[in-house]
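Chain A, query sequence.
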Amino acid sequence: MARNRPCAVCGIWFRPNPRLGNRQQTCGLPACKQEWHRRLCARWRKRNPDYDQETRLVDRLVKDPPTPRGREPDPLRRIDWNSARAVVGLPVSILVQETAKVLVQRPRESIPR
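Chain A, predicted structure.
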């Protein structure tokens, strides 16, 4: 059974829940739980600063145009190339755009209509 311990937030001594044992860090008051959660989230974000950077960038660059009937939309039109140029620079964005054109066109040419 876990022994009494001080709350990691407010410092008040408490007896941990027997099911949680030594894993319980706070006394159980809602304010202490909220502060403990805030601290853990801040620590995680500090250790993983680039976690959602790619997702935010993709959300900013990719736009979904309406799909024409009977055809797949051109994947190159889904990208906002002006935003891409602002992020990576003109030479890199042109290289990526031209490479993507080749990669999209090659399968289209090899599949008979």
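Strands lie at 5-6, 13-14. The chain has four helices and two strands.
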